[in-house]
Amino acid sequence: MRKDIQLLADIQADLPMIDLHATGGITDALTMLDQELYHLSLQKTLACRVVYGIGEGVLRRAVLQELKRHPLVQGVVEESSGGSAVIGL
């Protein structure tokens, strides 16, 4: 599964996107992330891109920690461009 996710990230695949970098803070971002992941899982989506932005890394760390423990997430690959990750559901 991780190889598949890495391939999607490498080719910049057109994936559904969860954009968190404009949310009101970490709590709002994590709430939105959880809601969007459940919504995507109901649609049988297999992968998506999560955008947390480039900054001091506070939101990045919180989002990646949440993704790694979330029951719907099968794998996480940070994109080399920074500010986002591709996840498998």
Structural class of the helices, strands and pairings?
A: alpha+beta
Number of helical regions: 3
- Unreliable parts: none
CATH class equals: Alpha Beta
> What oligomeric assembly is this protein in?
single chain
Task: Count the domains.
Answer: 1
Question: Main sheet?
Answer: 4 strands, mixed
Overall morphology: globular
What value does the average pLDDT take?
A: 88
Rg over CA atoms, rounded to whole Å, is 12 Å
Description:
With 89 residues, this protein is α+β, with helices and mostly antiparallel strands. It has one domain (2-88): Ribosomal Protein S8, Chain: A, domain 1, CATH 3.30.1370.110. 43% of the residues lie in helices and 19% in strands. It is built from three helices and four strands, in the order H-E-H-E-H-E-E. The protein has helices spanning 2-10, 26-42, 58-69; strands at 17-19, 47-51, 75-78, 84-88. It has a four-stranded mixed sheet with strand order 1-2-4-3, sandwiched between helices. A hairpin with a 5-residue loop joins strand 3 and strand 4 (84-88). Helix 2 (26-42) runs parallel beside helix 3. The longest helix is centred in the middle third of the chain and has 17 residues, at 26-42. The radius of gyration is 12 Å and the shape is globular. The protein starts with a helix and ends with a strand.
Task: Please render the helix and strand layout as text.
Blueprint: H1 2-10, E1 17-19, H2 26-42, E2 47-51, H3 58-69, E3 75-78, E4 84-88
Parallel strand pairs: 1-2
Antiparallel strand pairs: 2-4, 3-4
Helix pairs in contact: 2-3
